[in-house]
Design a protein that fits this description.
Chain A: It holds the Pfam family ABC_tran. Chain A: Keywords: ATP-binding, Nucleotide-binding, Transport. Chain A: This is ABC spermidine/putrescine transporter, ATPase subunit. The complex is a heterodimer of chains A (about 325) and B (about 300). By secondary structure, chain A is α+β, with helices and mostly antiparallel strands. Chain A has 2 domains: about 220 residues, Rossmann fold; about 90 residues, RNA polymerase II/Efflux pump adaptor protein, barrel-sandwich hybrid domain (OB fold (Dihydrolipoamide Acetyltransferase, E2P)), CATH 2.40.50.100. Chain A has 10 helices and 18 strands. In chain A, strands 6-7-8-3-9-10 form a 6-stranded mixed sheet, sandwiched between helices. A 5-stranded antiparallel sheet of chain A has the order 13-17-14-15-16. Chain B has about 300 residues and is mainly alpha-helical. Chain B folds into 2 domains: about 55 residues; about 220 residues, MetI-like (MetI-like fold, Orthogonal Bundle). Chain B is built from 14 helices and 2 strands, in the order ααββαααααααααααα. In chain B, helix 13 runs antiparallel to helix 14. The chains are: A alpha+beta (about 325), B mainly alpha (about 300). Chains A and B meet through helix 3 of A and helix 10 and helix 11 of B. The structure holds adenosine-5'-triphosphate and magnesium ion. Adenosine-5'-triphosphate binds next to strand 2 and helix 1 of chain A.
Chain lengths: ~325, ~300
């Protein structure tokens, strides 16, 4: 099933405010994409425009070669899974799942069979007769997934699907999401503001900030080679350092400690934080900049340091990425 | 065995001693419930018991006397007037209910789902309540010059050429009675329905559209079921108000139609208290039965 999704100059304005500013992106068919960004950057708005729950102010949304910008939600080939799951409280789990079939006028026995198939897929077949209020958060989420998938969408849109779950369940559910995506081959577009979630799940990460896409690419590319200071900071585990040759992003685990003479930068340790497998040193270097160095516990305890000690920092030139902004 | 049973007894002695100085939990609950129970007992339960007692009394043309006889009920159930009047009461209740539900649901739906800003919602909602700043009677009577034979409605229709003769059924008819009821009681439908609608999660509606439902399908399969508790509360308000009313029927029908309330008020006017009490008891039981049946359909507890 081909289901390439292209955003062409998609813009959303609410009066004066621009929530999404002329973004272009190509979501490849069958990939797991994460829209990542801080609160208010326009992720949900983008997703809702793709779903058809928000009109586009400008530009177009092209799914599988077809401009769907002005089609109603159900005619687009997309399905949305809502953040709070939005299960119908008055309908049983099975009726929730088969709601779209009922709207199409499919007869009751066929609806039931299809609903049970979908519930089987998310491992919820046993609870088909319960009401949503009688389910746990994780179970509700599976039902919401089944309800979205029963429409056989080409693209599944998920708005912060894991944020209502506790941390333990979140990690389990994200593994299941990934598995489900692989099995169904449907394009998933998943909105999140957690970089760990994006890194764990996504084939492709689209980092948004201030209504625009800052950088898009495979997860490893985003993490290894952030192009802007914003991306480097947001994705975490990076230092953004202003050097004479310009701003660079430097992974904190790519920095070694050396003696002051051989160092590219020197400074003084201001904090030491033990993190179990790693130890994070924070040093103040020239120009009042803070740099974090992540050492493995073996490295650190092999040559322990004290707060206030002078240290030199060195790194391989290839790990420093010059930033464009 | 003994050692095991001894220990809990010894340790439970201390809390028991402490509790002795305070009131037992059950007593506290009784005291907390007492004020409301007393008020309801004195002003609701006692009068009803009185009415039930009096309904078995006897009456002559000029006096009433304590007794325990079923004459009042026998007379009530054997008189064709009773059935006619009860039928009328149900007719008013049913038609008024249907009209207030239709109008109330539409108004509430508009307020809840089409008015976007909260300020406007509050403003329009207050607008709905403005008529209630005057008394029921004034609002009712103000219909009379409007609907009368030479009233505004008739003269306007004649001047537009819609009709040649004044419409007789506009005033002092079932039409005017029901019109007044609808006017008086629609707000009692709007408020609870609006209240439930405001609690419906908006993403449910988007989820419905996402599943391919049309606007009407969403209304029927999502909004109406979720609004049922509000509809039920409004229904109970309207039904009880209409079934207990007598003044609206008297004014708006020009004393030409009767409902149970008027039957009771006539009896009271003739000082036939036992007969009025018996009718009141039958009306009360009827209304309670209706509410009982309604409550079987919808669980309103989660609304309260
Ligand atoms: N209905 C609306 N009217 C006016 N402004 C809106 C509306 N919806 C969103 N916005 C604005 O658009 C911008 C983007 O909102 P959006 O919901 O897409 O953010 P988000 O990236 O999903 O944030 P979060 O992570 O907090 O959910 C925000 O500045 C928001 O205030
Ligand atoms: Mg959002």
């Amino acid at each position: 099933m081909k289901s390439d999704l292209k955003l062409v100059n998609v813009t959303k304005r609410y009066g004066e405010t621009v929530a999404v500013k002329s973004i272009n992106h190509h979501f490849r068919s069958g990939s797991y994409a994460c829209l990542l960004g801080p609160s208010g950057c326009g992720k949900s708005t983008t997703l809702r425009m793709i779903a058809g729950h928000e009109s586009v102010s400008d530009g177009s949304i092209v799914l599988d070669g077809r401009d769907v910008s002005y089609l109603p939600p159900a005619k687009r080939g997309t399905a949305m899974m809502f953040q709070s799951y939005a299960l119908f409280p008055h309908l049983s789990v099975a009726d929730n799942v088969s709601f779209s079939l009922k709207m199409k006028g499919v007869d009751a026995t066929k609806r039931r069979t299809r609903a049970m198939e979908m519930l089987e897929l998310v491992d919820m077949a046993k609870l088909g007769d319960r009401l949503p209020a009688q389910l746990s958060g994780g179970q509700q989420q599976r039902v919401a997934l089944a309800r979205a998938l029963i429409t056989e969408p080409q693209v599944l849109l998920l708005d912060e699907p894991l944020s209502a779950l506790d941390p333990f369940l979140r990690i389990r559910m994200r593994a299941e999401l990934k598995k489900l995506q692989r099995e169904t081959g449907i394009t998933f577009i998943h909105v999140t503001h957690g970089q760990d979630e994006a890194l764990a799940l996504a084939d492709e990460i689209v980092v948004m900030n201030n209504a625009v896409i800052e950088q898009a690419g495979p997860a490893r590319e985003i993490f290894d080679a952030p192009r802007t200071a914003f991306v480097a900071k947001f994705i975490g585990a990076h230092n953004v350092i202003a050097l004479p040759e310009g701003k660079v992003a430097l992974r904190s685990d790519a920095i070694q400690l050396t003696d002051a003479q051989a160092a590219q930068l020197s400074g003084r340790i201001t904090a030491i934080e033990y993190q179990g497998t790693h130890v994070a040193l924070t040093a103040m270097v020239a120009g009042e900049q803070e740099v974090t160095v992540l050492l493995t516990d073996k490295e650190f305890f092999g040559a322990p340091k004290e707060t206030g000690e002078a240290i030199g920092l060195a790194w391989d030139a290839r790990s420093a990425h010059t930033l464009s902004a | 065995m003994t050692a095991e049973t001894d220990t809990p007894t010894a340790s439970s002695a201390a809390p028991a001693a402490r509790a002795g100085r305070r009131l037992p939990a059950a007593m506290v609950a009784w005291f907390q419930a007492a004020p409301l129970a007393l008020v309801l007992g004195a002003f609701l339960v006692l009068p009803i018991i009185m009415i039930v007692i009096v309904s078995f009394w006897g009456a002559t043309e000029y006096s009433i006397y304590p007794a325990f006889q079923f004459d009042n009920y026998e007379f009530l159930f054997s008189s064709p007037v009773t059935y006619k009047v009860f039928f009328n009461t149900f007719k008013y209740a049913l038609i008024t209910w249907a009209a207030t539900l239709l109008i109330g649901f539409t108004v509430a739906y508009f307020l809840a789902f089409h008015v976007r800003s909260l300020t406007w919602q509050i403003a329009l909602f207050l607008l709905c309540t403005i008529p209630f700043w005057t008394s029921n009677i004034i609002r009712m009577i103000s219909w009379i010059p409007f609907l009368g034979r030479n009233g505004i409605a008739n003269s306007t229709l004649i001047s537009w050429g819609v009709i040649d003769e004044p419409l007789e059924w506009l005033l002092f008819s079932d039409f005017s009675v029901i019109l007044a009821f609808v006017h008086l009681y629609t707000l009692f439908m709007v408020v609870p329905i609006f209240n439930t609608m405001m609690r419906i999660d908006r993403s449910l509606i988007e989820a419905s559209y996402d599943a391919g439902a049309t606007g009407w399908q969403t209304l029927w399969h999502v909004i109406v079921p979720l609004t049922k508790p509000g509809i039920m509360i409004g229904t109970i308000f309207v039904i009880t108000l209409v079934m207990g009313d007598f003044i609206t029927v008297r004014f708006m029908s020009g004393s030409q139609s009767a409902n149970v309330g008027r039957l009771i008020s006539n009896d009271i006017g003739l000082l036939q208290y036992p007969s009025a009490a018996a009718t009141a008891v039958v009306l009360l039981v009827t209304v309670l039965l209706v509410i009982g049946i309604l409550l079987r359909f919808v669980d309103i507890r989660k609304e309260l």
